[in-house]
Request: fold
Amino acid sequence: MFSSTDTNNKRALASSNIRGDRYEVKRHQKYPHALNFYSVPPTEEITIDEFEGFAFDRLQVLKALEGAILRNKSEEDIKDIDKKLSLPLHSDDAAKAYPLEEERRKDHISHFILRLAYSRTVDLRNWFLKYECALFKLRFIRENKEERLAFLNNENIRWKNLSQAERELMREKFTKEESNACSITYDDELFEIDFEKVPDLVAKRAVYIKEGKAYVPTTEQISLVMYEFRQRLAKALELASKSFITLRNERIMPMLDEIIKYDGRTQTTNNYSLIDNPNADNLAEHFPLCMQHLYQNLCEKHHLKHFARIQFNLFLKGIGLTVEEALAFWRKSFSEIDEAKFLKDYAYNIRHNYGLEGKRQDYKPLNCMSIISSYRPNSGEIHGCPFREFSQSNLSAKLVQMGVRDEEHIKEILNLTEGEHYQIACTKYFEITRGLSDKNNDNVIIGTIEHPNEYLNASVSNEKNRMKMNNKDKMVNK
Reply:
């Protein structure tokens, strides 16, 4: 993808010669279609900012797709997820309204950056393959028939198309075959393909099988296309993994490492809060479960241990509390400790979190991945993510305590935690406790909760929207 005097780097990225803050890339071709099998690496010039920005924007879309699929969102709910999340890709008929060349260039380059970043392990390759397939599928379905056909012809993808006489004979066999769930209309074309290439269609009896061949109607063409896309990308990832071992570029490697660590949220400044006049006690009802748990323990016991204090104090910092407000909050909360002990044992660490002591590093509020993965609680400690750390029985009781009464909702959340989808479980908890149904698409979070402060912001925003709607209804009913 990039050019370089280093032969190994050429294999890894197709090129990688850094000139100043730019990578050298030569475009082989324009982009005649919105759809792309990503067969040819891009080789045009991009900046380092583009390298990072393109990768993070695409990863945000893939993470959002992961969350939506795990939460059983419908195809209708996620059909435009890429357009909503900084990776739009429009058809030719939208050329007057959108910069198609720029969109397709970004889509092309971002895919190859992530392909390289996610090629290093089997788990990463499988994750990338799964959600790239999901993204391609929703885009393919979104295109009209003419554009799909033009794209497939351009990719030289063709299947044996039965003649009209052969189709008539096959329709009769479909009709007579009682065990077959597929029905074929007069206008349906039929494609002949090896049956092992369409196991999903065979499983649901959507094709007629004869002598090792499956006969696929046009209504099921998507399965044929997805087979081609999946096979090609799987092979490409294997090749990329071999090249990754030889990659030795001091400027690219740290960026690829950051891509893997990225939690899927938009890159933001240190201002995590959208809250006016922040006050921890007044905002407690909007806290995510991890912070609710810490806050409740603090109120009951007037103390938190070291890592719990760090987790909660940085969260308060993210809300917008100044260091003076944070010190006042903790002094009030630690009411059973005298002033001298508080100043000696606790005030320093609070000021340290704000970058006012020690090496004066300005610490950011912890995101979900940090809370889940780092500093796992030992016996007697209560920090961390409840969806990961609580037993099934304790989590169930906690959910009931927090207002989740429906047994199906509780079961759904517990199943997600058993599958280690902790952030998806948190997002589901948010939707349930905020009264957001799947049908109310404008309010439901498309992606997954990735940060406690974003949870709080979303909760406050949801309440404001609800109050606006209530006021509007009152005005209408007057």
The chain has three domains: 7-154+228-261, 160-222, 280-477. Strands lie at 18-19, 22-23, 46-47, 160-161, 190-194, 208-210, 213-217. Confidence is low (pLDDT under 50) at residues 1-28, 265-272, 439-444.
